[in-house]
TrEMBL record:
Domain VWFA positions: 193-386
SMART domains for the chain: VWA
Gene3D superfamilies, sorted: von Willebrand factor, type A domain
Pfam families: VWA_3
Name listed for the protein in its UniProt record: Inter-alpha-trypsin inhibitor heavy chain H3
InterPro entries in the cross-refs: VWF_A, vWFA_dom_sf
PROSITE patterns reported for this sequence: VWFA (PS50234)
Length: 620
């Protein structure tokens, strides 16, 4: 998902986040008060809150609906610990969940499960609304989950169109194309010739190697007996399980398991080009199957642009079904935009585990998509006839039974009444379908497609080193609220007791670069937050074989960890709520005295002793 913004209102002050264009000369050390503790935990520190204040907190984020086995599911964090209730105050507890499901015309939704009681409050053409609004004795202890399926016995899809707003920097029209696999029970999938290219460099040690091995062993066990496979383990050199493709028989899979356990030993550097070239050559003769390259790495290399050019040339001059390239990145030291671009050129897909604890499930999920292809070589010739058309991704991937295929983009002029889609089925028969065009369905096309477009445009900007594309990404980021590599987040602190200067130039301050942030509006203070982009890889960390997970975290993360350990320890001896009640009833003078006392103890080196006893935690 993506964090879009946070708003906090207190009695005297309010705080809100906003995106601004990043200044290349801005020092990262100036950032403070926030950032990601982990890939899925965003932290924001509010500098000053008066005691006894009631807080109103609003968080906006975007996340994708997950599709698996023909079922779509949404899981939203909705768990609240007991200690969030203000001590000594009786407050009414009310939970309210509003869910809107936009239905494409001609599709029937089958609702499966929900974690909270929902009532249908609205049903219109193409839209259904649900509501859960209850007074409760205690806050929810379960995340909100909702799942549904779309009933269809065949491959289906459609096209949504949306006009640009008057404030849009790009005045071309927008389109959103989706192709769904339909009922997958009787769908025939392509036979596979798959080569696993696995990084075993020195940084892939310990849990990283174990989880990668487990995922690979599970993937091998799921191959069909008529599939062909081999494995290339690489560091500075390449190590082949077999110099030729082997049938996925029980004997071959068992020998592969033994080979993996023997040869998957972390050590050496990182050379992606050689094993990738080897795999492409081995798959050049594939005729009655889909050739697939499945690349896994945690590092970045210097010749990434040359690798992309090499693969692109092969795809132009290759066979009717060129090797599909699926890429999987581990941690933040690899160049995820290189992996994304490589997958797009190879008409495959990309995924990542920024959190190393998610390696096994995310890697297996990507393998399921790669091994469940039902429609290949997809073409939409009519798109080439539209003026000034831009399609994301530019190379159309194959359709998998594990989820829908989505394309989006911009165009100028008239869109055809129907869009003809062609492809090849698993039995190598031809497939055609006419997709209907729908306009003004109330579905925010730009908001739905913005995140993918930003990431794909960033990959193109990285590959071409094009400054104009970088500026385009920044504009799209500011317009939609999705973060990018060329924008960063700031926090605006507004003091409502001061008169805010009303001037025509006050709104322009937020649109200027960070170097201009010192020109704050009267009554407002601008705080720069840490950059939330994943960057373009780390050659130094890769060369030094630094394992993922050793990235520099916000300073507050260490404080947060120590505080958590301390609270856990103290809670074993006294009631946490009693402490909260005690501190909440102190006035500012008492708190100041207590603070000075702690500082004094620190000067006498007693604080270090106490922190060692109470807050050291258990690193194991």
């Amino acid at each position: 998902g993506s964090i879009l913004g946070v708003e906090v209102n207190a009695m005297r002050k309010s705080y809100s986040t906003q995106l601004v264009v990043m200044d290349e000369n801005q020092s990262a050390t100036q950032a403070q008060n926030g950032g990601f503790l982990k890939s899925n935990i965003f932290m924001l520190t509010i500098p000053e809150i008066d005691g006894g204040s009631n807080l109103s907190i609003k968080i906006n984020w975007s996340q994708k609906v997950v599709c698996s086995n023909g079922e779509y599911s949404l899981n939203v964090p909705f768990t609240f610990p007991e200690f969030i209730n203000p001590a000594g105050k009786r407050m009414a507890k009310r939970e309210k969940i509003r869910l809107n499901v936009d239905v494409v015309a001609g599709s029937e939704l089958l609702f499966k499960t929900t974690s909270h009681p929902l009532q249908e409050v609205r049903r219109q053409a193409g839209s259904i609304g649900f509501l859960c609004d209850n007074d409760v004795l205690s806050w929810s202890k379960d995340d909100f989950s909702f799942s549904y399926a779309v009933s269809s016995s065949r491959i289906n899809g459609g096209v949504l169109l949306e006009s640009a707003s008057v404030h849009d920097f790009d005045q071309r029209e927008m389109f959103y194309i989706y192709l769904s696999p339909g009922d997958i029970q009787h769908k025939k999938i392509f036979k596979k010739e798959i080569i696993f290219i696995i990084d075993i460099s020195g940084s892939m040690q310990g849990k990283l190697m174990d989880d990668t091995k487990n995922a690979l062993l599970s993937a091998l066990a799921k191959l069909n007996p008529d599939d062909l496979f081999t494995i290339i383990a690489f560091n500075g050199e390449s190590h082949l399980f077999s110099k030729s493709m082997e049938l996925a028989s029980n004997d071959a899979v068992e020998r592969a398991n033994e080979w993996i356990n023997t040869n998957f030993v972390a050590g050496g550097g990182t050379n992606i080009s050689h094993p990738l070239n080897t795999a492409i050559e081995m798959l050049s003769g594939a005729r009655s199957s889909v050739p697939i390259i499945f690349l896994v790495t945690d590092g970045t290399v210097e010749d990434e642009r040359q690798i992309c050019d090499m693969v692109k040339n092969h795809m132009i001059n290759g066979e009717s079904i060129c090797p599909r390239i699926y890429t999987f990145g581990i941690g933040s030291f690899c160049n995820h935009y290189f992996l994304r671009m490589l997958a797009m050129i190879g008409r495959g897909q990309y995924d990542a585990a920024l959190d190393v604890d998610l390696i096994e499930p995310r890697m297996l999920s990507l393998f399921e998509k790669a091994s469940s292809l039902i429609l290949a070589n997809i073409k939409m010739d009519m798109l080439d006839e539209i003026d000034l058309v831009e399609v994301f991704p530019s190379h159309i991937p194959d359709l998998s039974s594990e989820g829908p295929l989505v394309l989006s983009g911009r165009y100028k002029g008239n869109f055809p009444e129907t869009l003809k889609v062609k492809g090849i089925m698993a039995d190598f028969s031809n497939f055609e379908i006419d997709l209907k065009i729908q306009k003004d369905k109330g579905i925010p096309v730009q908001r739905v497609s913005a995140r993918d477009q930003i990431q794909l445009l960033t990959a193109q900007a990285w590959l071409s080193e094009n400054k104009q594309l970088e500026q385009k990404v920044a504009k799209l980021s500011l317009q939609t609220g999705f973060t990018s590599e060329y924008t960063c987040m700031i926090m605006l602190e507004t003091d409502h007791l001061k008169k805010i200067k009303e001037s025509s130039g006050s709104k322009e301050v937020l649109k200027k670069k960070l170097s201009k942030h010192d020109a704050n509006v009267q009554g407002q203070r601008t705080i720069l937050l840490p950059h939330v982009g994943i960057g373009f890889g780390d050659l130094k960390a890769t060369a030094e074989n630094t394992p993922p997970g050793y990235e520099t975290k916000p300073e507050m993360a260490e404080i947060f960890k120590a505080a958590s350990n301390c609270v856990d320890t103290v809670c074993g001896y006294c009631c946490c709520m009693c402490c909260v009640q005690c501190f909440s009833r102190m006035n500012n003078q008492c708190l100041t005295v207590l603070n000075q006392l702690c500082i004094g103890l620190g000067c006498l080196a007693c604080l270090e002793c106490c922190s060692h006893i109470c807050c050291c935690g258990d690193d194991n």
